[in-house]
Every structure is written in C-alpha cells, then in structure tokens.
Write a structure and sequence with these properties.
The complex is a heterodimer of chains A (480) and B (483). Helix content of chain A is 40%, strand content 19%. With 480 residues, chain A is an alpha+beta fold. Chain A has 3 domains: 285 residues, no CATH class; 115 residues, no CATH class; 59 residues, Arc Repressor Mutant, subunit A (Orthogonal Bundle). Helices cover 38% and strands 12% of the residues of chain B. In chain B, helix 8 links the parallel strand 7 and strand 8. Classes of the chains: A alpha+beta (480), B alpha/beta (483).
C-alpha cells in the first residue's frame, strides 16, 4: 500500500449457530437436503403462522458474548427488517436492531508478533433467508427455503483493523473461537461462516473516516484478504485520480479478483425496522449467565498459556496445537497415553502428523492414526526401542493400516539392536572396509565420521542406535 | 332447534331428542335458505355432516367432548386444514391451509361440527363488512343495513340463527361492534388469552379471537374451548383457564361500575345514550354502584390505533407477494411486475390504504413522529385504564356511536368509518377484555352495551352479562323472518 494512506476496516461476520432446529420453527437445520424438504409452515411464511424462539440459539449467543467479555443485554428485542425478495418468505427478516443480545466486547489478535485488541460492537440474533437458484429453470428462478430460518449470530466489529492481514487475523481468531465454543461448525463452504467487509481509506494521520464501501458475502480467508486489498487499492487510485469514493455495496468476484458495485446508498432499501409484535423481548437473567459461564470451555488464549506452562512447548507449537479445540484435545490425549511425552508429542504433532493431514486434506477428527496408536509409537521412541528414523517408517504403516506400533515393530523386525557385541562387530567391519574416511577423520576432518556412521546404519538397516554408534566409533578411532 | 341455547342443544343431543346429523342438517338448510345475507364464504355441507356423524357415535359411546355434535361456524380468518381460508380477500381466494389454527383444533377436540367459514372484511380491516371480496353481508334486522365488521358474517350467522355460535376476531372492535349492531353477545378476551396461531394476522399486537354467541352463558361455553396457553404462540399467556360457567350466577351486589365520561360526550347519539343509561340502571337494581371516571387520553385512541395497526399490517401483509401461495398475476414480466400486479390486483382499497399508511409511518424519518409517538400514546391509554380499573371493577359504555348504518353510507368517507370504532379501539390498545351485550333497540335496531374488565377477568364479564340477561330479554329478540 502507498504509505501515505491508511485503510480502515470493520467486519460483519454471520455465523450460523449449530442448533438442531431453526431459530423460530421446529424444522431441521441439517445441510444438503433436497430443496424445500426442510421448510415447515413457519419457514414458508404461510398465513397465520407465528415464530417461537429457539432457546438454544439464545444460549449460544450468550455463550459467545461471555467468551468475548461482552455485555449481555438483560433485555433484547427482535425487530422486523422489511424488504421484498423471493427467498425471504415473510417479506421481512426477523433480526435484532436497536437492542441486540450481545453488546460491547473484544477479541485480541496477533499480526507479525504484535498484539492488537479489536473491539466488537455488538452481536445479534437473526434468521437466515432461503436461496434463489438461477440455473436449471429456463429463465425462471427457483427458490429453496431449506435455509430460511436458520439461526445466525451477526458479529459486528469496530472499524479497528488497518490492513487486510489484520482483518484476516481477526476473522481467523473469531473462527477459532466459535468452533471452540461449539456454537458454529465453521464450515465456510456451506456458508456457516460468512463475512461482509467495510473498507475505507484516509490519509495517514487524519482522524475522520473516509467514505466506506461494503463488500458482501466473502466466504474464505483468502478471498477476504484479496478482496480487501483490491478494494484498498481501488479507493486509493480513485482518490489520487481526483475521484471520490461513494458509499455503496460491492461484490467480490473471485475469478477476476476484483470488487464491483452492487447498489449505491441511494438505491439502498429503507428497511422500516420495528419491534416484532409476534415475539416477546428476550430476558436474560443473571442466573442463566452464571450457568452458561460455568460451562464455558477453556478458551484459546488460556489454553495456549497452559500448554506453554504445563508441557514446556515453544510458543509456535503451543499456538499451532491450540488453533482448534479438536487438535488440542488430540494432543493432550497423545500426551496422556504416552505417559507424559509432551515435547516428543508436540514435535510429532506439529511435524509429521499435521504434515500428513495437510497432504491428505484431512481434519484432525479424520486422522487415520488415533491418539492411542500415535502414543504407542512415541513410547517406543522414548524407550529407545526404535530410532527416530525407523519411527517415520512405523508412522507410515500406522497411517496406512490398523496395526499398533508394537505390532509393526515386531512384524518388521525394526527393533533397535541393543546387543553391543553385535554393533561392535559391524563397527569394526566398517572401519576396516573404509580406510579413506578413517584417515580423514584421524587427520582432523570431523565430518568424515558421519560417512562412517551412515555406513554402519546401513549395515544394521537403521536398527542401531545412532548415538551409540557415534560413541563407539569415536572411542575405537581414538584408541590405537 | 335453531333457537335453543348451547346447553339445551347439548342436553338434546345427550338425551337423543335429536342427533347431531339432524341438528347440522337443520342449520345447513337455514344457511341455504338465507344465502342472501351472504354470511358464509364457504359452507361445508359434506364435511360438516361427516363430523356430525362421528360426533353422534361418540355421544352414543359416552365419551364425547364438551361441544360434541354442536354446529358452529368459523370466521374465515382461522386456517382450516383442507377448507379454503380466504380472509375475505381475492388474494387468498385459492388458499387452502395445510394446517388448522389452534382455535380450530380446540373446537375439533371438543367435538364441534364446523358448518363453514364466515364472511368478513378483507384481512379484518373494516367496520361494515363492505370490504369483503365476497361482497357485503346484510344485517338481518334490516337487510339494507350493514352488520358491522370485520366479523360481520359471524354476527349475522348467530343473529339470524344460521349457526348456534361462531368465532370472531377483534383488533379494534371487530367482535364487539358487529355483535352490537346485530344484537348478539360478543367477547373480546384479554390479549394473549386465546391463541393467535393460525389466525391470519392483521395487527399482531392487537388481534385477539373470541366467541360470538346469543348469550353470555353460550359465550362462556365457547371461551372454555378457545382459551388457553399455546406454545405455538409466543404472545399467548401461560395462565390457568378458569371455569367460565362456574360463576355466571354470582351476585352483583356491590359491583363497582365506572362510566368513562369521555364515552358519553356529544358524539353519542342521544337515543343510544338513553339505552345505555337504562342498562346501567338495570345494574343498579342488581346491586351495583355506579360512578363516573375520567380517562383523558381516550380521544387519542383512534389516531394511535391507525398508526400501530397500519404499521403492523404493512409488514404482516408483505408475505402476500404472489411467490409461494395466493393470487399471482397473469404473465409477470419480471419480479417487480410480479409483486406490483399480484398485490395491486388482489388487495382491496381499504387494505391498500392501510398498507400505505403503515409503510409511511415506519419509513426512515417518520418512525419517531408516528410509530414511536403512537406507542407512547398507547401506554398513556393503558395507564388511564389501569387507573380507572383500580377505582372500579368494570367500565361500561356504548359499543358504537349509533346503530347499524345503511350499506354504502360511509364507504366514501374512511374517517367516518374509522369513528365507528371510537369506543372499542382503546380496549385493544390496552389489551383488556371487553364484551358487548344486547341492551335494547333504537328505532328497531339493536344497541350494544360494552363491559370492560381488568386483565383476565373474562369470567367476571360473563357473570355480569349473564345476570343482566337473566333480568332482561333483549338477547332473546329475533329479527323478523328469522324466528
């Protein structure tokens, strides 16, 4: 970015709350059903139907509020947002306007080693709309109302972010948090976590905000970063070229990597919000807050600190291993089953395990090697039954089969040779067969020793302990 | 049979003086005979007789519900599974609900037989039943006159003995005003007492269903079936339902009646005022004490009501867009055309007027001046009632400023039409229960006495109505030609 300019970014993130039924009806929220098979009379907005608030959605919203240290409104109100659209069955969306359930809170992010606190203005409950399907209907539009009435928590940040990088860091942190809290499955492909970005630019040092554009419905971290960066550049170019940014809604086109205008402020709807007379105000008692607070899981920041303190991990490993609750739980299960091999488990998890998962595009929940089987391997490394090198072979077999580490080691005869006599014989044989490296080592080239160790490991098919071999070699070559 | 009370009908069915099929047949014949009243939008000959047959079997088996075999008729605002629910509108002329309103389910459970669906002002907006897509309903006391609205079909069906009893709904007077103009008993319960689920919404914070019957005694039996908490309606109240028939005969000795002085201003026709005073005198004879009460904010009720009700209706009626159900215009060119023509062609003038007013009142820049102000006025009016009802047990006054007017007389002047509800609207804003009972005639047309009680005092109101009906016979008068 041109250094004279500063970007100002605020995000509105729609998280789909993972309730079993919809926010105002008993219909299922499961994803992927045949169109219009999960829409009941209430979701269809039939004449005479009435909404009934799903209390689980309220609990999940309160859970979120408590986790971001926010004010929980003792009295919040559902309002109708009125506009016509074919996938909005009632002609209004039930949302919250003046009195949202979650007030001021905050979330801390870290970018390039610098911590920053991002304010969260509010989070409110609302229902999702259905979907308009434009293909396959010969110039007509199909309407699928399965999604209509799905509970959403819209989380609105303060305009506290100053770069696309910060925006993405905030979004990731939020994504991590809602999954920790188990209030949202975080599935971005299915639209469970969607982002609108408000972007403006201003000359560095200026207090007032510039005119903002809102980029709608961006559904991946990568696209959020690209869309914001594109938009920042567009606005700077526009202003520097003598133009003016207009307040408008824009769409990000991932194929062309650009944003384009959707509608201007003048064309914007007057939503005619007013309190929904079909629903009573939501009253949150202190007792409910206390009850939910007591069930809050350990949050990412606290968990990372505990991993640092309790397991002696380095900062990066602790961050990686606490980036999702499932990963952290897996790690702790491995540590426990391995009898406390915390550091070894940390190395293996952040290295081989995550590497293999990444390569196979799998989540930790789908890891073919269970915590117990992985722990079985780590135990054999720790007690020197196998070397680190052999361990990698065993891990491959764990990944591709169902046997335990011990079974694989026994079947394949991978047990480390602990008989010093046997190793000594091989060492002597290698020394005798390799006079050149021996000579080099003796004349001061320490590196030559590695060639000899390699030869010995080769002879033992990796089953000798490399440390042992090293020690024995050095002793033998110093002797005469 | 058609002049019997509900208790008499129940006894007759139990004692096998007649069967439910015979009874139902008798009312179906009367409905057929008096089609010119236009009280019904849909008559369910076939299903009514099936229900009657089933009821007869249950009665014989001895496990019948409280209204087993009793024919009733539903206002066409209550959704009925398998039978058209039009709400008096072209918009829903083709609409068959896939579910029953809770009120309808309750009547089914009680064993009642549904004769059909009753005419009404379109979407319950109107005070004369002239706003129905299905044409005006005629008042049996003078068929050139309106029956009132919006539950005009209900009032006429009961007054003309086309049904022993009916349901109505009341947003600003739609049960009480037609009950008064047709000489029957109508009760608007406390807001939240009767489930609104399946009752097509006009103004959600004001709408309330209730019974329309020939007497307070009959209304009590209907209330018993209609009232109760419904988990499907978040605004219904979780409070025990009393036995509405248990205290019908309680003494009225010492009852404190308040007469709001604003109800007896010059707007009230002097003959009407005399009839109401005579009714109040009857209560004095029954042991009541009467005093005047002051309710200074009542005069604000009509403007506040038309802002709030219109605002809510503008949103409630947005779902009628031609997309999923109801009327859809021919060959829409695009989405906007589909919306504007479907709505433009299917809504009547009064509905459009209120949607426009409501949309305006909620618009950016006007919300505070209209909607918020109206809500503040609503609170002032509620406070007036609270104060008055802390001094007296009930309030009494007229239901309407005059008796039934002629068809067409007020259609060109919406303000005049809105003033029809001047005595009833405030009660909806406060959410209180109120009843209209027949209290005499002016020039041959019925006059209604309004009795307003505190929240959930329906049993008391019915008691007050019943004692009066024991002492008078206004409620027993039958229009000529319908005896």
């Amino acid at each position: 970015m041109n250094s004279q300019w500063e970007a100002v970014i605020g995000l509105e993130i729609h998280t789909q709350l993972s309730t079993k039924s919809k926010i105002f009806s008993g219909a299922s929220t499961a994803y992927g059903a045949e169109p219009n098979t999960q829409a009941c009379a209430v979701d269809l907005g039939l004449p005479g139907v009435l909404p009934v608030l799903n209390q689980d959605a309220v609990r999940k919203a309160v859970t979120f509020g408590l986790a971001i240290d926010a004010e929980i409104a003792p009295h919040s109100v559902f309002a109708r947002k009125n506009y016509f659209y074919p996938d909005l069955p009632k002609g209004y969306q039930i949302s919250q306007f003046e009195l949202p359930i979650v007030g001021n809170g905050h979330l801390d992010i870290e970018v390039d080693g610098v911590e920053k606190r991002i304010g969260i203005t509010r989070a409110h409950l609302e229902e999702d709309a259905g979907k308009s399907l434009h293909e396959d209907f010969h110039g007509l539009t199909g309407i699928d109302l399965n999604r209509a009435g799905t509970p959403l928590l819209e989380i609105v940040s303060e305009p506290d972010m100053r770069s696309a990088k910060e925006a993405v860091a905030y979004m990731r942190k939020l994504h991590e948090l809602v999954r920790y809290l188990e209030i949202c499955d975080g599935n971005m492909q299915e639209g469970s976590f969607r982002c609108d970005a408000n972007v403006s630019v201003r000359p560095k040092g200026q207090k007032e905000f510039g005119t903002r554009a809102e980029i709608k419905n961006i559904n991946s971290f990568r696209f959020v970063e690209k869309a914001i960066n594109y938009e920042i550049e567009r606005q700077i170019d526009l202003i520097e070229g003598g133009g003016k940014v207009v307040q408008e809604t824009r769409l990000y086109d991932a194929n062309k990597d650009e944003t384009r205008s959707m509608r201007s402020k003048e064309e914007a709807n007057d939503y005619r919000y007013f309190p929904d007379p079909d629903l009573l105000p939501v009253l949150i008692e202190e007792s409910l807050k206390a009850e939910i607070r007591a069930t809050l899981p350990e949050l990412p920041v606290a968990k990372k600190q505990r991993f640092l303190d309790q397991y002696g991990l380095d900062d990066e490993s602790a961050s990686t291993l606490t980036s999702s609750r499932e990963l952290a739980d897996f790690y702790e299960a491995v540590v426990k089953a391995s009898g406390g091999e915390a550091k070894l488990a940390g190395n293996w998890m952040t290295g081989d395990v995550l590497g293999a998962l990444n390569k196979a595009s799998l989540e930790i929940a789908a890891c073919p090697v269970s915590a117990e089987r992985l722990a079985g391997l780590l135990k054999r490394i720790a007690d020197n039954t196998i070397s680190g090198k052999i361990a990698k072979q065993v891990f491959d077999k764990l990944w591709n089969g169902t046997a335990t580490a011990d079974e694989i080691i026994a079947q394949e005869g991978l047990k480390q040779i602990t008989d010093t006599g046997a190793i000594e014989a091989i060492v002597d044989k290698v020394i005798a067969a390799n006079p050149v490296p021996v000579e080099q080592y003796l004349s001061g080239k320490d590196k030559a020793l590695m060639a000899l160790v390699g030869q010995i490991m080769k002879e033992t098919q990796g089953k000798a302990n490399p440390g042992e071999v090293n020690k024995m070699l050095m002793e033998k070559l110093r002797k005469p | 049979m058609h002049n019997m009370t509900l208790s008499e009908l129940t006894a007759g069915l139990r004692d096998k003086q007649f069967s439910s099929v015979e009874l139902t047949q008798a009312f179906l014949s009367r409905i057929d005979q008096h089609q010119d009243l236009n009280a019904f939008i849909t008559v369910n000959d076939e299903t009514a007789l099936q229900q009657a047959q089933a009821a007869d079997q249950l009665i014989s088996a001895g496990n019948a519900g409280p209204l087993a075999g009793i024919p009733i008729a539903q206002k066409d605002i209550f959704c009925t599974l398998g039978t058209k629910t039009s709400c008096g509108s072209k918009m829903l002329d083709n609409f068959i609900a896939p579910y029953n309103a809770t009120v309808v389910d309750n009547f089914n459970r009680a064993g009642a037989v549904m004769l059909g669906k009753l005419n009404m002002d379109e979407f319950a907006m109107g005070s004369s039943n002239e706003n129905s897509f299905y044409g005006p309903v005629r008042n049996p006391w003078d068929t050139d006159c309106v029956p009132g609205g919006s539950s005009g079909g209900s009032a006429v069906a009961v007054a003309a003995r086309l049904a022993p009893a009916a349901t109505g709904t009341d947003t600003g007077g739609s049960i009480r005003q037609p009950a008064a103009l047709c000489g029957i008993t109508g009760l608007k319960p406390t807001y939240g007492r009767v489930s609104r689920y399946g009752m097509i919404a006009y103004a959600s914070s004001l709408d309330q269903g209730g019974p329309m019957a020939r007497s307070a005694e009959d209304a009590a039996l209907l209330m018993q079936v209609m009232a109760g908490f419904d988990p499907k309606d978040s605004t219904s109240v979780e409070q025990a339902v009393p036995d509405y028939s248990a205290c019908l005969n309680d003494s009225l000795q010492g009852l404190k009646i308040g007469l709001p002085k604003q109800f007896f201003s010059s707007a009230l026709n002097s003959q009407m005022a005399a009839a109401i005073q005579a009714a109040v005198d009857e209560y004095r004879k029954l042991g009541a004490e009467v005093k005047e009460v002051d309710m200074p904010n009542l005069e604000l009720a009509i403007p506040a009501y038309y802002v709030i009700a219109s605002a809510e209706c503008s949103s409630n009626l947005s779902r009628y867009d031609g997309v999923r159900f109801g009327y859809r215009c021919q060959n829409p060119e695009d989405l906007t055309d589909l919306y504007t023509r479907s709505r433009g062609e299917a809504f009547g003038a009064e509905v459009k007027r209120r949607i426009l007013m409501g949309t305006y009142a909620l618009s950016a820049g006007y919300y505070d001046a209209y909607y918020l102000k109206a809500q503040q006025v609503r609170r002032l009016i509620s406070d007036d009632f609270k104060r008055a009802l802390s001094e007296v047990d009930v309030l009494m006054g007229p239901v309407t400023p005059s008796t039934a007017f002629r068809i067409g007389e007020k259609t060109s002047d919406p303000i005049q039409m809105y003033l029809e509800d001047i005595y009833t609207i405030a009660i909806n804003l406060a959410g209180l229960p109120a009843m209209s009972i027949p209290a005499g005639f002016v020039e041959g047309m019925p006059v209604g006495l309004q009795v307003i009680g505190n929240y959930f005092s329906e049993a008391k109101l019915l008691n007050i109505g019943h004692r009066y009906q024991q002492a008078t016979d206004w409620h027993l008068q039958v229009p000529k030609g319908f005896e």
